[in-house]
Every structure is written in C-alpha cells, then in structure tokens.
Amino acid sequence: MTVHRPRDMALLDRAALRDAAVGAVRKLDPRALVRNPVMFVTALVALAASGLTARGGEHFGAMVQISAWLWFTVLFANFAEAIAEGRGKAQAASLRRTKTDTTAKRVAAPDAAAFETVAAADLRTGDFVVCEAGDVIPGDGDVVAGIATVDESAITGESAAVIRESGGDRSAVTGGTRVVSDRIVVRISVDPGESFLDRMISLVEGAKRQKTPNEIALTILLVGMTLIFLFVVGSLPVFASWSGTAIPVVFLFALFVTLIPTTIGGLLSAIGIAGMDRLVKFNVIAKSGRAVEAAGDIDVLLLDKTGTITLGARQASEFLPLPMVNERDLAEAAFLSSLADDTPEGKSIVALARGRFGLAEPDQADMRFVAFTAQTRMSGVDFGGASIRKGAVDAILGLLGGGRGSRELANLVERVAKTGGTPLVVAKDGRALGVVHLKDIVKPGIRERFATLRSMGIKTVMITGDNPLTAAAIAAEAGVDDFLAEATPEAKLELIREYQQGGRLVAMCGDGSNDAPALAQADVGVAMNTGTQAAREAGNMVDLESDPTKLIEIVMIGKQLLMSRGALTTFSIANDIAKYFAIIPALFLASYPELQALNLMGLASPQSAVLSAIIFNALIIVALIPLALKGVRYRPAAADVLLKRNLLIYGVGGLVAPFAGIKLIDMAVAALGLA
Amino acid sequence: MDAYGILQILLYLALIVAITPLSGGYMARLFEGRLRFLAWVERPIYRLCGTAPEREQHWAAYALSLLAFNVLGMVALYALQRVQGILPANPAGMAAVPPDLAFNTAVSFVTNTNWQAYGGETTLSYLTQMAGMTVQNFVSAATGIAVAAALIRGFARKSAKTVGNFAVDLTRVVLYLLLPACVAGALVLVWLGVPQNLGGYTEATTLEGARQLIAQGPVASQMMIKHLGTNGGGFFNANAAHPFENPSATVNLIHMVAIFAIGAGLTNTFGRMVGDRRQGWAILAAMGVLFVAGVAAIWWADAAGNPALASLGVDQSLSPWHAGGNMEGKEVRFGVAVSALFAAITTAASCGAVIAMHDSLMPLAGMVPLVNILLGEVVVGGVGAGLYGMLVFVLIAVFIAGLMVGRTPEYLGKKIEAKEIKLAVIAILVFPVGILGLGAVGLAFGAAAIPASGPHGLTEILYAYASATGNNGSAFAGFGANTPLHNTLLAVAMLLGRFAVIVPTLAIAGSLAAKKTVPPSSGTFPTHGRMFVALLVAVVVVVGGLTFFPVLALGPVVEHLALAAGTLY
Fold first, then answer.
1. B418: nearest CB among A220, A459, A646
2. How close B351 gets to chain A, by Cα (Å)?
3. Which of A13, B377, B408, B428 pairs with A309 at a CA distance of 20 to 30 A?
4. Is some CB atom of chain B closer than 8 A to the CB atom of A111?
5. DSSP state of B359
6. Burial degree of B172 (CB within 10 A; 0-12, 13-18, 19+)
C-alpha cells in the first residue's frame, strides 16, 4: 500500500509567485485589509503620505520614495498571505474536481429496489442512496446495508481500496470516493456544503479561516503597541517644537510605520495558514485552527494499546511445556492445531514451531480442523484418532473436565500473564501439554516516541481492555507513563473528564463508534479516517492515513505555530531599537548637532537614514516569508531550553540584524544617490 | 564612588531583603483574614458602614466600592481646603485654597501621588494637613494595597467568583498595618528629633540680626505615613531635605527603609499566597536589578561632577574638603551617594519624597529618576501599585515567552488569554497617554510655566507629567506647575495613572480568579528562575524604552551631550 502525501511545493514556484503578486494587489481592498489592524493602519498611513506627496514640498524626492515604500510594506504583507493561501489553493483545486457533476441514486428505504436519479447537491441528511461498482459516492454518510470496496485515493492519496460495510467500525464513507466492487446503501449524514470535502476545500484555501484564541490575543497586543507608538509619534512634533524643530510629516509617517509591529503584523495570517497547510501535508484534516493550537498545549495523550502501541496482533514467542512433556511435542501439537488457523496468532505459532524445530508440512488429507468460535474459544484438529485443542486457559480447562488444572500448569499460566503475555493452553487427548506464550509486540521505535513526548511535557496513557497485570507489563515495556486497564467507553470518558477537571488538556485518537463520546470530550480528538462517521464527526481532526502515533506530529505543528508567532513578535519588537537609532538622530540633527553621537550606524544623511529604515522595514517582511511558511524549527526540549534558544536567535538576532541591514541599505541608497 | 557610599547602599539592600519576608508574611496573614486581634475595633466600623464583612465581592463590585470611596475622599478633601479659612486649628491664618489648586491637591492626595503644586507651610492649615492630607495618606496607601491583595487573590484562587471585600481590606490594612507601624514609627522619629506639635510658627532672630519665621507643626506623624505609604507629600516645601523632616542619618535610613518596606514585602506576600515563595523572590529580583542599575547610574553620573565647572578649574573630586561630584541642590549632610540612593528609592517606589533636588542632578543622573517613573513605577513601586503594575508586565512577558515555547501562555497555572492581554494593554497604555499625550497638550498650551530653556526645560515638564501619571509626586523643581492649565491637566494625569490602571487590574483579578489552575509540566516555562527575571527586566525596559526614547533623547540625552561639548542652556 502506498501513500501519496500532497507534494511539497517548492517555496518559490514561478507560477505561484505570479498568482501571489496579483493576490497582493487584490488584497488592498479595505474590507480585506481591515481584518489585519496593523496592516490596515499602515495602508492608511501610506494613503496619507501619498496625498501629502502629491501636494509636493521641500523633500519631494524623499517623500515620493517613502510613500512608495509604505505601499510596498502593505503589498509585501499581502504577498506573504497570498503565497500561503496559494499553496492551499492548488490542493483545493484537485479536491474540487472530484466534486463536480456527481449524481446520486436515491432510494426511499434501504431495502427498496427502485431509485430515482438526483444531483448530489440536492441530497439532504437522512436520504438513502445506492452505490454500485463504478459509482462515485455522492455524499458523506454511513453504510446501512451491504459491503463494498471503495477507492478513497481522491481524499487520502492511498491507492489501495478499502472495505466499507454496514455496522461495525468501518461504516463511514466519504463523498467523492468511488465504489470499486459490490453494492452498498448509504444513509447521507450531512447537508450539501457541509461535507467533509467542502470542509477540506475551505480549510486548505483558508477561506473561512477564523482567528485562533492565541492569535486574537496576539493581535490585541499588536494593536496596543500600535496605539502606544501612535502617542509616541503623535506627540513628537510638540516636544520637537520646544527646540524649534519642525519635522516633515512624511518623516513622522515613516517613523510610525517602522515602529509599529509590521513584521509580525504582516506575517501573522501567513503563519496561521501555513500551519494548517503543514497539517494537510501530514494528511491530517483539522476542523478548526483552534484545534491545531490546542494540540500544542496538550498535557495528556490517551492511546489505544492495540494497533498504536503494539502491533495489531499477538505473536507466539515461546513454548512452555509442563514437566514430563517434551518441548518439541508441545510445539508439534500447537503447530498441527494451528495449520488451518488464519489469524495472525495462529500463523505466528506455525512460524515459531517451524523456526524452532524445522517441522515439515504434514499431509492434511485426513485432518479435520476445528475452527475457533467465540463460544468455544478454542480451535484444534482431529486426525488419526488423536484430538488436539488449543485455546484460552479456562476454555481448555473446561474441556479437560473442569477444575483448576495442575499446579504446574497454573504456574506457567501465571508466568506468562505476569510478563504481559497471553497464555494459550495446548491439550492433546484430554491431557494438557503446556502453554504457548502469545506476546504483544510493542512497535519498534515507540518507546523513543514516548520519550520524545515526555520531553515535550506530555504524559502518555495507554488504554487497553487487558487485565491490569498484562497492561502493567506492556506499559512498562512501551514506556508509557500510565495505563487504563479493562477500559470501557465509560471509563475512557471518565478518565478524560478527570484529567480535564485537573486543568489538563487531553488528546486522544479513536475510530469506533464507542469512541465518539470520548473523542468529543477530549480537547483534541483525532478520528481515524477508516473509522465510523460518528467518530469522524465527534473528533476535531481526521487523520486520513489512520496512524494514531501521528498525534506527535500534530502536537509539534501546534507548538510550531505558536512559536513562529512568538519568535516573529520578539524579532519585530527588537528591531525597533535599531530603527530609533537610525531615525531619531536624523530627525533632530539640524536642531541638536550633538545627537550625531546617537547615529551609531554612521548613516550618510538624515534623508537616507529615514529611507533606509523604511526600506529595511518593508524588505524584512519578504525576507521572513520562508520562515513564516516553514515555521520556526521545533525540537522537543524543556521549556526553558526552548525559550533561551529562541530568545537568543530572535531577540538578540532581532536586535543586531537591523543595525547591519539598515547600514547596508544606507550604503546602497547613498551609492545610488537616492537621498 | 567610594567604599563608604557602597557600604551604605549595601546596608540598605540587606535591610530590605531582611524585612521583605517579615512584612510579606504579616501581610499574607492579614489578607487571608488570619489576623483578628483587633476584631473588636473592626466590628463597630463595619456596622457603621453597613458592611457584611464575611460577604466577598465580585471584581466589578470591588472596583465600584473602591471608586465610590475615592470620589468621596476627593470631594471631602476639596471642600476642606476651600473652607479652611473659617475652620479651627489654623494658627497661621491660612486662607481658602484657590479652586484649581484645591482640585489638583485633592486628586493628588487621593491618588497616592502627593504632587504638591503648593508649599505646605504657606498654604495649608494644621486642620487641613491632619484631617485632610494625613487621612488620605493612610487611605490612599490602603487603597493601593487592597488592589494588590485582590490581584494576588485572583492568582491564588481557583474557579472563584470573588476577589475580596473592599471595605474589609481597606479597614484591615489601616488598622493592622499602617496605623500600628506609623504610631510606633512616629514616636521613634520624635525621639530622634522630629517635631510634633500644634504650636504657632516661632519667630527667631538670626546671628546677622535678621528675623526668621520658623515653621513647625505635627511633622513626625506625617513623616512616617508619607514614607511607609509611599505618599511623599512633605510637611514642608523642601520635603525630606528640610532638617525638621530629616534631622539625622538614622532618621534618613528609617525613611528610606520605610519607603520600600511594604512594596518589597508585597512580592513576598504574593509568593506565599500563590503557594510558591520563589515566585515572589523572582519578581523582587527583577525589581532589584532595575533598582541597583538606577542607583549606580545616578551615582556614577553625579560623582563625576559637572564638566562645565571642571573647565573653570574647580576640583570636584572626593576629598576631606569636598563631598565629591556634583553637589548642587544637595543637602551637604547627605552627599552624593546617599542622595543618589534616596533619589532612586523615591522615584522607584512612587514615593516622591526628596532629600536632593532632582532638577540639579547631572543630566544623565536626572534622567534615571525620570526613567524609574517612565518604566511604570514598577521597581518596587507605590504600595500595592508597584506589585500590580509589575504583574501587568509579567503577563506581557509570560505571553511572549509562552508563545515562544509553543504553548498557550500561562502564569502560575492560569492561562493568559485575549481578555487578560486586552486589560494589560489598557493598563500599559495609560503611561503614553498620560505622559506623552497630556504632556504634549501641557507643552503646547502652557509652555510659559517652564523657566528653563533648551532640553532641560523639556525634561522639567516631562518629569512633571511623568510624576503625575506615575502617581509619584516628586518634582523636577523649576517647573511652575501652579497654573490653572497644569493643575487641571496634571490632576487628569494623576486620575488616569491611578484609576485607569486599577480598574483593568481588578478586572484581571476577577478573570484570573474564575479560571482553573493548570498544573505545571516540563513544557511549562518556569517563572522563578534567572531566565524569567532577565525576561521580565527586558520587557519592562523595552516597553518603557520604546515608548520614551524620543523624548528622552530630546531632553536629558541632548543636555548631557551638549554639556560634554561645553554648551549650557
């Protein structure tokens, strides 16, 4: 099975750049700009500066250039947003193609034979539709009758078709996918426009993007800083007049725009869109940005044991014969009884016996196999008068005439159970031979992943239906922090509530219908795409690849999102210091020649100093677009280590970089004779 | 800079660090209602006010009670000044205070600013001083402490609806903390030579045969609360530079320790009540870093002396015949080092008492007290106000730090969200609005009040508006503030600086109290280490620095550069 993840687009694709450039101009629409207060203010200032410049005046050359760069500042910010959106649009376009012109065969009831053909867009919640081989499933829903193989590659990128059947945990189908074989009846569960596909499209396009809580808080802080600088710059002419200095208004505009946090203001929405985009690249669909952000805050992670922590099936790991029984005899009995057993457990017994004793395939002609049933809980074989059975401890003991069996057998069973294994008793002709140790195999590398989570401050809890003894052993082997044994859906829900009462944020993943309440209760619920429609509705993210360990990546993306915002805010504010040292001496040099001492960068002239600062301020937005799109690098580490590193790079870096940048631009400006 | 000066400063720092856990522990018990030995005095007071002491208030109700109480105090104080001429206890026969000055003064004392546009001994009667000024010295200090108590409760409580009861907090702070400390302290001051009487002014004949009127009065009682409550309003116009207010080095030390005793102690109270004393020490450490840097800067800039005098051949170096450095505007008894220490303390703590004229400090030395105020009066700060002001900065620091470690920011287990940031931003905006906004209006329409020309004049008016907005009350003397325009604008600045910070602070307290507490994990940024202290200092300096860099460059910085180049204004 191959998985096609959306192709990682080149950061600077020529066509994408051209589209983004057009988008940048189109986003000058005030109704779009007003969503971003810092950029809206910048645009207003640019407009006012252009108006003043049009009237002409003393510093006409400088005024024209400053006005132009003020507009560029706005355009560059729009450009960043357009590029981020463009990356999503390409994906949305391919999704939309599967949406057009689908028709549906609507039936009155699941068992009705006659259908009417209607447009998929006319389907409403509760309608039943029939889908046969070759049909495209017209909308999201649950299979209510039949079984079919479905090609979901349009949504998941997974080329192998999957089974969808009524009842059970594989009943959800997605609109836009195609039935490959057989016939199913689907009960539509969403109205048009709200389907999974619609959500994915609007999500990757960033069209209905809502600001996340932390983004709102940050925007408030940025607006606050803008207001502070409004007072700083607004009062400056009065304080300057005391020394008889008259500052050209356009210079004040330039000072204002360089001081307000345009860098983070310009890149804020690009960071958010790019974060969702990164998630889509991991084939995870988040239903809201809020959920992605919450993922970064997760304290506790609940994971199902089977399929997540351990391989789906248990493996036979050793044969434990009773005293007076040859190990080879036990192995052979187990081998023979498992020949027709198609379960992974049975296959693993055959493989182990072959590997240990080189047993050859016997002639199966006169063998009569007894299949496993949920009632008998044993399987076996009868041949040549002999009867071999293997199965759960109490089932075999019952077969042997009740009672508790010999003390030796009990010892073996307990030994296996204590290590987290499952004991299978093998009996031949009414006599127990010994025990096969079926072991849960912990996935390779999972221990390291949990260690990573621990270093991120996330506690892992294993959920299992096993008894506490087995659960404890596996938990220890896998390195999880805690476990919930003999878990029922109610116990799961209760556990989540308990953690949340303690103020912790809980993430979990699940697929079955009985997981739905817990998925809904969890702060971050990741539903597997293979799961039921109920689970997919309840969770706030869907993993298209149905890989539960992916929560780690989701958490990291959530953290990256916040870190990128924090780092660029710090950078933006730290930049202001250098800008002051460029502009303040420039503005007052005429009245106070002494202020030349503050011209640390040795900028050529007052005009060139102001111009260099505003050019730097605009260009830094473009320079940081790649960082905004890729996100600040996150390596799991303790919070203080992360903070120290980011403060050093973005705080100290933000302090130093503009000194060098403005100086270089000043040299260029002076060399070109622009000021 | 000499060893004697360094020793005095170290002694002072040691005393503060020693007192912090004592006063902090006492106040923690007070705020938690565990001190009840004066319950027999409390009960009749509550009955008189009709307060149910066990009923706690929602933050909004708390804020309303606080505002109502302060408006009432303001009206009473205004009325008292306007009719003092016909009231008793007025041996010097002071007339009614003019309306604009009375308004300014009423606001000034209610807001714990104690900006004095008047000279105490030439304007106010004894009755006004005692029933008006001294009462407000107590209750305005208690108001600030009550707000701090409410905010601390906000951090300490989980899923709570209330933040305390204002009437109870106010009464208890006055009864258990301010009154006992001031009665004891005042007696010590009297013993050490500070006058305390109600007699008329004494007429004396000087050695030259001139006649001098020696002002006196109930000085000691006002001294103790003026410093302990960081009010700063002197009994005499010369404030603590007057020998009756500050007769000896011992009294001076008592004054200085009293100014920081409650403010520093509150950091410890905070730590105790949120269940982790290290949190309190971290905040005090951040304040300490800023404070020591300030003292060192003033001392360094002043000890170097005046280059203009040096160019005339005057030897200003430390010697048996010279205290060393710039001695203009200083009490010769105290010298440069202690004057630097006192100037840093009084501006850091929003007190405003002075023993040296800040106007006469060297330009860079004079910039430090100004910067102390501009940073938001959070370096220890006014009683209560310093702690809640600093906690507002903590929220901003934690917010940025939280984002940078990839988690929704949290402090002491409380998530810091849009609501808290909005309120914190409102509180921080008060400084640019009051100082730059109102200052610019004052300069545009009232420039005549500034006698000094050049950058020094700009510093003077800037200092006045900073002092008012920061509720400091000290003055860069020289600025003629007593005009209707400046009296009114400064009063508005004082009101803004006080209540436009208190109301959002109480709202933050209410919002935090209602939140659940998230237990810390290794993904949580620890807020008690050096890293956090450095970050907090950086945020305070950067926010203050970015806001006031241009005006500071035009004022003290230019003056300093010009002076070094030989230009005098």
1. A220
2. 26
3. B408
4. no
5. G
6. buried
Residue B31 lies in a domain: no
* Mutation site for A-interface testing, chosen from B554, B559, B561 by largest number of A Cβ within 10 Å: B554
Chain B residue at shortest CA distance from A219: B418
- Cβ contact B403:A566 at 8 Å: yes
Residue A118 three-state SS? strand
Tell me phi and psi for residue B541, to 5 degrees. -65, -40
SS3 of residue A543 by DSSP: strand
Burial (CB count <10 Å: 0-12, 13-18, 19+), residue A339: middle
Question: How far off is chain B from A52, nearest CA to CA, in Å?
Answer: 24
Q: Is residue B508 part of a domain?
A: yes
Residue A232 sits at the chain B interface (C-beta within 8 Å): yes
Nearest CA in chain B to A212: B418
Within a domain: B161 = yes
User: How far apart are the C-alpha atoms of B356 and B365, rounded to whole Å?
Assistant: 12
Residue B205: strand pairing partners? B211
Task: List, by residue number, the catalytic residues of A.
Answer: 304
* Alpha-carbon gap: A299 to the closest alpha carbon of chain B (Å): 8
- CA gap A103, B214 in Å, rounded: 104
Range of the domain at B414: 37-176+278-569
User: CA dist B537 to A279, A435, B18, B396, B549, Å?
Assistant: 37, 68, 23, 12, 17
Select from B400, B405, B408 the Cβ nearest to the Cβ of A639: B405
Place of tokens 């030897």: B315
pLDDT tens-place string over residues B19-64: 999 999 999 999 999 998 999 999 999 999 888 888 999 999 999 9
Q: pLDDT of B165-216, one tens digit each?
A: 999 999 999 999 999 999 999 999 999 999 998 877 888 898 888 898 888 8
Say which of A241, A299, A584 has its CB closest to residue B521: A299
- B475 closest CA partner among B241, B173, B203: B241
Segment 491-550 of chain A within 8 Å of chain B by CB? 502-504
Q: How far is A84 from chain B (nearest CA, A)?
A: 21
A156/A658 Cα distance (integer angstroms):
45
Residue numbers of chain B with a pLDDT score lower than 50:
none
Summarised one tens digit per residue, pLDDT across range A96-153 is: 766 656 778 888 888 887 888 888 778 888 889 988 888 888 888 888 888 888 887 7
Task: With CB atoms and an 8 Å threshold, state whether B439 touches A235.
Answer: yes
| A-chain residues near B454 (CB < 8 A) | 243
Cβ(A599)–Cβ(A666) below 8 Å: no
Helix or strand run (H / E) with residue A471: helix A468-478
Angle between helices A262-281 and A551-588 (to 10 degrees): 160
Q: Is residue B17 part of a domain?
A: no
What are the phi and psi torsion angles at A40 (to 5°)?
Answer: -60, -45
From B447, which residue of chain A is nearest by alpha-carbon distance?
Answer: A242
A457 conformational bin, left if phi > 0, alpha if psi -120 to 50, beta if neither: left
Chain B, nearest residue to A650 by Cα: B404
ipTM of the complex: 0.94
CA distance A110 to A93: 34
- Measured between beta carbons, which residues in chain A are less than 8 angstroms from residue B426? 224
| C-alpha radius of gyration, chain B, whole number | 23
* Residues, chain B: 569
HEC letters along B366-417: HHHHHHHHHCCCCCCCCCCHHHHHHHHHHHHHHHHHHHHCCCCCEECCEECC
Number of domains forming the structure of chain B? 1
pLDDT at B123: 84
Q: What CA–CA distances, in Å, run from B214 to B116, B120, B200?
A: 20, 13, 9
